[in-house]
Amino acid sequence: MPNQPNSQKSFVKSGDEATIVCPQCNSAKIIAVRQFRQRLHMLKVKCRCGYDFKVQLEFRRHYRKETDLLGTYDPLPPAIGGGKAKVINLSLSGACFELRGIHDLKIGQKGVLIFTLDNRKETVLTKNIFIRAVNGNRIGCEFVEDRAFEKELGFYLRP
């Protein structure tokens, strides 16, 4: 659905409000979306100009960028293992990466993810992580940081 030509994403602000912009006439409207937080994330919208389109509500705290970045993952003891990782998407507060081969990672484990941005400087980032999701070889993690914002990552993630 989100990849259809007549659909768009709308990021939900902290007050559970989203701005919907008609792709036909560019009129904007702010709507309350709290009632959709736990269930529906795709809305059918009819603009006052008569145009029908779909809006996917994005409840994430930060914008998430699709990536194809190489790196490594090392679990913190007592877990063992680690190896090459491919970061497939990235935000200010976390990442999703894929591992090759068999692993024994579990939700709640901690580790270190090191990866290189594909920017001009080829910035190498080292992130302490907490595993939030494991789906086969796809690992979703949250960054555990002393500082909430990193300048290089913030610049890289600008939409």
Strand content of the residues, in percent?
Answer: over 45%
- What is the element string, with H for helices and E for strands? EEEEEEEEEEEH
Tell how many strands the DSSP assignment holds: 11
Gyration radius, rounded: 19 Å
- Look at the helices and sheets and give the structural class: mainly beta
Helix content: under 10%
CATH architecture of the largest domain: Beta Barrel
What is the topology, as strand order, of the major beta sheet? 6-7-8-11-10-9
Number of helices: 1
The general outline is: elongated
Annotated CATH homologous superfamily of the largest domain: predicted glycosyltransferase like domains
The N- and C-terminal alpha carbons lie at a distance of: 21 Å
The major beta sheet can be summarized as: 6 strands, antiparallel, barrel
> Are there runs of 5+ residues with pLDDT below 50, and where?
none
CATH names the topology of the largest domain as Thrombin, subunit H
* Count of all domains: 2
SSE blueprint and pairings:
Elements: E1 7-11, E2 17-21, E3 28-32, E4 42-46, E5 52-58, E6 65-75, E7 83-90, E8 94-99, E9 110-116, E10 124-135, E11 138-143, H1 151-156
Parallel strand pairs: 1-5
Antiparallel strand pairs: 2-3, 4-5, 6-7, 6-9, 7-8, 8-11, 9-10, 10-11
Explain what this protein looks like in three dimensions:
The structure is a single chain. The protein has 159 residues and is mainly β. It has two domains: 7-58, no CATH class; 65-156, predicted glycosyltransferase like domains (Thrombin, subunit H, Beta Barrel). The protein has one helix and eleven strands, in the order βββββββββββα. Strand 10 (124-135) and strand 11 form a beta hairpin. The protein is elongated and about 60 Å long.
